[in-house]
Amino acid sequence: KPRIHADLSFQKSDSITENPVNGAEFLLTGTSGYGTDVFMRASAEGTGTGKGTVSFSNLELGTYELTEITAPEGYIQSRTVWTVKVDERGVAALYDGDAEAGKNTGGEYVIQNEPYHAVRFVKSSSYGENIFLVGAEFSLNGISDYGTNVSAAAASDEEGLVVFDGLEPGTYQ
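The structure assignment produced for this chain is given below.
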């Protein structure tokens, strides 16, 4: 008997703008229903309407795990482990937990990345308007909502601007 196969593709997008993004890398692992060990990598790439597309071809009947191993530049790597199921009809489906993953209006699965966040403020003098303090030093400390320890320092620039970039969501001091 011929083996049952299917292809899976999905789009990688920004969770805020919903625009497609390239640069994410995914790993698909597991053992097919025929006993074939699967270890496949694919990256989000493409241009125009195909931008952010990730494709896995020729998946045999079975259930697999999908993980993001590299996030696009400027984005937080997803810690979600998705399930990919290829059924007896030769249809591949993507699941987030027990529910089928979300799709866009074109019927394509979508996996989103959250961009890193920033805290920005201006340090100014209380002795008049538009007097900015240069070189004022600040520290930002805490643990992100994802459990990452954060300890960062920044100083105000010539316009008094202080910037802490590359932050995961969380509460910081």
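Interim note for the steering committee: The chain is about 0% helix and 55% strand. The chain has a mean pLDDT of 93.
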